[in-house]
């Protein structure tokens, strides 16, 4: 890393957090979470803090007190290019641990860190709080293989049906996750963690993420960023109307795009396999009439 890169390290993330980008906290944790946890673990084992504060206590307290509560103090200088973020974080964490030692000596254990840290602590050093069961991972892999094989050949249809369907499936799965785990009271830090997790639930390739989606012709990844902020707020849903609004298309257009793409997949893999792979899809799509209707509707596509 040269001097210029070293000085600007963390600047992009700092700027994103300060402007309120909900995905920025997830990026921050992905990049610095394990490092902070390793340093915190060493301090938690020290004679001054041992048996009083765990690694999780230290990291969560540090993030809550020094970053979430007052992000501008830590990040504003970094966003202006006045130094790099990692050494500033580690120096601040070291000082924070010293303050815990002083707090331990002057305050009873039951009124220390637990009083300042949200009871729903984040799970460090693991970056992501919730693991996806292996069975679901395998199901997702099979679904994506079916979608990608369906649209591997070039089509005269101008709408990127593969990406439309990959986005819709990620939205559906994310809605289930968000409804189960997200709360209206979640902090920006927790929302950032959720945002990072949502992106990992249903992965895309870099080439898929860069495909422009009409009518705005913004990359799929940028559309997903906009939808993520909606998914993390009650009622934790991003329906067709929401997607259409972001794309600046008529409300029923997105529904038609998704329906036609689904029908092509069913025709490609067959109705029986389609039902197993996509149990959340409308049952009418798997009927004989649904398959016949597909050829008619394809003639109406762009």
Individual helix count: 15
The total strand number stands at: 2
pLDDT < 50 stretches:
106-129, 289-302
Largest sheet: 2 strands, antiparallel
In helices, the fraction of residues equals 55-70%
Q: Percent of residues in beta strands?
A: under 5%
SSE succession: HHHHHHHHHHEEHHHHH
Estimate nothing, just give the exact number of structural domains: 2
What are its keywords?
single chain; 302 residues; mainly alpha; two-stranded antiparallel ribbon; disordered C terminus
Describe this structure as you would to a colleague.
The protein has 302 residues and is mainly alpha-helical. It has two domains: 3-115; 134-298, no CATH class. Helices cover 64% and strands 1% of the residues. The chain is built from 15 helices and two strands. It has helices spanning 3-8, 11-18, 24-44, 55-68, 71-79, 85-106, 134-150, 161-181, 188-201, 206-209, 220-231, 240-247, 251-269, 271-277, 288-298, and strands spanning 212-213, 218-219. Strands 1-2 form a two-stranded antiparallel ribbon. Helix 8 (161-181) crosses helix 9 (188-201) and helix 12 (240-247) packs across helix 13. It is elongated, with a radius of gyration of 23 Å. Residues 106-129 and 289-302 have low confidence and may be disordered.
What layout of secondary structure does this protein have?
Elements: H1 3-8, H2 11-18, H3 24-44, H4 55-68, H5 71-79, H6 85-106, H7 134-150, H8 161-181, H9 188-201, H10 206-209, E1 212-213, E2 218-219, H11 220-231, H12 240-247, H13 251-269, H14 271-277, H15 288-298
Antiparallel strand pairs: 1-2
């Amino acid at each position: 890393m040269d001097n210029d890169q070293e000085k600007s390290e963390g600047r992009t993330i700092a700027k994103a957090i300060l402007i309120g980008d909900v995905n920025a906290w997830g990026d921050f944790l992905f990049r610095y979470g394990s490092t902070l946890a390793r340093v915190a673990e060493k301090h938690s084992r020290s004679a001054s803090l041992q048996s009083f504060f765990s690694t999780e206590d230290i990291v969560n307290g540090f993030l809550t007190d020094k970053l979430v509560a007052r992000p501008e103090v830590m990040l504003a200088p970094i966003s202006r290019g006045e130094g790099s973020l990692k050494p500033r974080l580690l120096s601040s964490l070291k000082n924070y641990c010293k303050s815990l030692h002083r707090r331990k000596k002057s305050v009873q254990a039951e009124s220390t860190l637990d009083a300042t840290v949200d009871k729903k602590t984040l799970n460090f050093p693991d970056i992501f709080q919730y693991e996806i069961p292996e069975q679901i991972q395998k199901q997702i892999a099979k679904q994506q293989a079916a979608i990608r094989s369906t649209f591997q050949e070039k089509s005269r249809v101008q709408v990127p049906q593969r990406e439309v369907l990959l986005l819709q499936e990620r939205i559906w799965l994310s809605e289930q996750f968000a409804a189960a785990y997200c709360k209206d009271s979640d902090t920006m830090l927790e929302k950032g963690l959720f945002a990072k997790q949502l992106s990992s639930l249903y992965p895309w390739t870099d080439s898929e993420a860069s495909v422009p989606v009409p009518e705005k012709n913004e990359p799929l990844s940028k559309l997903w960023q906009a939808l993520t902020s909606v998914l993390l707020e009650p009622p934790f849903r991003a329906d067709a109307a929401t997607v259409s609004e972001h794309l600046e298309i008529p409300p029923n257009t997105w529904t038609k795009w998704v329906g036609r793409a689904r029908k092509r997949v069913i025709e490609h893999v067959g109705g029986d396999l389609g039902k197993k792979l996509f149990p959340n899809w409308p049952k009418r799509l798997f009927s004989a009439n649904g398959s016949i209707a597909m050829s008619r509707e394809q003639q109406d596509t762009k």
